[in-house]
Amino acid sequence: MSNIILIGFMGSGKTTIGEKLSLMKNMRFIDLDLEVEKLEKKTINDIFTEKGEQYFRNIESKLLEKYCCLDDVVISTGGGIIESKNNIEILKNKKNVIWLDGNVDTILNHLRNETHKRPKLKDEKNLEEYIKKLLDYRKDKYNKASNIKIDINGKNIEQVISEILVYI
């Protein structure tokens, strides 16, 4: 079986869905955000604060290159993985790159109690407006990088997974 790579906006369910998919398919699960934290021995918030977003993105890109070459893995990426043109090129040449596409309301609902854990959101005053702008900016990039698009709006985790299983 080839890899499954999940992309999408923060709060779209990549980690939760990735963990469940990996168990169902008996595949190794890799969360790129956790891998960055292990490598740096710091939280993503601390990395953003101390070294900046670009430093984080560079590590994230190196780990994407490393892990997407493995076999039989489910990879959950960070929401901004598509900020790099190189990452988009890597992803669009892989099979089973799944974009978990949610609208602003769905994302907001998923993130309501997690903004303190998200470096891009922790200081935002108007969360809805910020998410809308960033989502609009990233949509084309997610589309270019993926070959499967799953609409997550109004669906629970099991429904999203069932839909993914149809494609893979």
UniProtKB/TrEMBL annotation:
Its cofactor is: Mg(2+)
Q: List localization entries.
A: Cytoplasm
Which annotated residues bind ATP? 11-16, 118
The pathway this protein participates in, as annotated, is: Metabolic intermediate biosynthesis; chorismate biosynthesis; chorismate from D-erythrose 4-phosphate and phosphoenolpyruvate: step 5/7
- Annotated substrate binding lies at 33, 57, 79, 138
Q: Which residues form the signal peptide?
A: none
Q: Which domain of life is it from?
A: Bacteria
Q: Does the keyword Lyase apply?
A: no
- Which BP terms from GO are recorded? amino acid biosynthetic process; aromatic amino acid family biosynthetic process; chorismate biosynthetic process
The record ties this protein, via InterPro entries, to: P-loop_NTPase (IPR027417), Shikimate/glucono_kinase (IPR031322), Shikimate_kinase/TSH1 (IPR000623), Shikimate_kinase_CS (IPR023000)
Q: Which GO terms describe its molecular function?
A: ATP binding; magnesium ion binding; shikimate kinase activity
Describe the function of this protein. Answer: Catalyzes the specific phosphorylation of the 3-hydroxyl group of shikimic acid using ATP as a cosubstrate.
Q: How does it assemble?
A: Monomer.
Its family remark reads: Belongs to the shikimate kinase family.
Designated name of the protein: Shikimate kinase
